[in-house]
Write a structure and sequence with these properties.
Blueprint: H1 2-32, E1 38-39, E2 47-56, H2 61-73, H3 84-88, E3 99-109, E4 117-118, H4 120-127, E5 135-141, E6 146-147, E7 156-162, E8 169-176, H5 183-186, H6 209-227, E9 234-238, E10 241-243, E11 266-267, E12 274-275, E13 277-278, E14 284-285, E15 290-292, E16 297-299
Length: 302
């Protein structure tokens, strides 16, 4: 009886394995498939796009110049390679041609007229300061300004505001300075991460952990904005929490990156600062990898 039982059990296990094997094989194949951002047939931002800036709170002239230089760098082909302009040209591989970003008007609000604790409705009010055609309104909040869910599950966001009179929509981006609130979350790898391996942080290329961290998040959101401005462009997942051109490659800055390690990047011999993109006025930046629709991979500069 025992022998028959063992034989029957062995046969049953063998049959079960044969049933599971195709499922295991399919699962392995699914995991190896590259990420593909689906195009949802909506408009993308193409052509010459003006980036108007709203500075909410206290920013120094140097901090403002770093961010403006970054925007200018996206349309500055003369810089040495690897360059921010080369990084931005990956957006040209998305349907509809090229996009050229140029700095536009500025609105300074150093007096915190809406207070220092902002809600989403406050961001929309600030984003409504400009409603130019073919533009993006960039709302930047200072290091002492809190925003709903900032540092909890987001470092910035993008969306659109509607012109009640014309019915047209204007895209906007919000990014916060995390230096005093959560640099380990929103300014990594220029600060030790909140979670995971406590590897030494990289040296910020412009000497400002908060603003250099803002550049990373701004780059991510600008890429998402031009390729998915109104929640019907390129993305994967739900429209409420989409995986987009920049966010598809979170944490990847150079080749060989893995969770907790940004990848191989360039290091300035004199200052020790890490970067992967040259920019306007001698600036250097660290920009995230961007998903390339031509290869369905996260494309890095180095």
């Amino acid at each position: 009886m025992a022998s028959n039982y063992k034989t029957a059990l062995a046969l049953a296990l063998s049959a079960l394995l044969l049933l599971l094997l195709p499922l295991l094989t399919v699962g392995a194949l699914v995991e190896e498939q590259p990420l593909v951002l689906k195009y949802h047939n909506g408009p993308l931002l193409k052509g010459r796009i003006t980036v108007n800036l709203v500075w909410y709170g206290s920013f120094t002239p140097i901090q403002r110049s770093i961010i403006i230089d970054f925007i200018s760098s996206l349309n500055s082909p003369k810089e040495a390679l690897p360059s921010a302009a080369t990084w931005w040209r990956t957006t040209n591989n998305y349907k509809g041609g090229s996009s050229t970003l140029v700095p536009g008007k500025q609105y300074l609000n150093p007096g915190y007229t809406l207070g220092k604790n902002l809600k989403d409705r406050d961001l929309l009010a600030l984003a409504s300061k400009f409603k130019d055609v073919n533009s993006i309104t960039l709302v930047l909040t200072a290091k002492d300004v809190t925003v709903d869910r900032f540092c909890m599950n987001r470092c910035g966001t993008h969306g659109s505001v509607q012109n009640v009179r014309t019915g047209s929509q204007t895209a906007y981006v919000w990014v916060g300075n995390s230096e005093a609130q959560c640099p380990g979350y929103c300014a990594w790898p220029f600060h030790k991460p909140i979670y995971g391996p406590q590897t030494p942080p990289l040296v910020a290329p412009n000497g400002d952990v908060g603003v250099d961290g803002m550049i990373i998040n701004l780059a991510t959101l600008l890429a998402g904005t031009v390729t998915n401005p109104f929640n019907n462009g390129y993305f994967e997942g739900s429209p409420e929490a989409p995986v987009e051109a920049g966010s598809a490659c979170t944490g990847v800055f150079g080749s060989g990156a893995y969770p907790g390690y940004p990848g191989r990047v360039l290091v300035d011999k004199a200052s020790g600062a890490s970067y992967n993109a040259n920019g306007a006025n001698g600036r250097r930046f660290l920009v995230p990898a961007m998903w390339d629709p031509q290869t369905s991979t996260c494309k890095t500069l180095v």
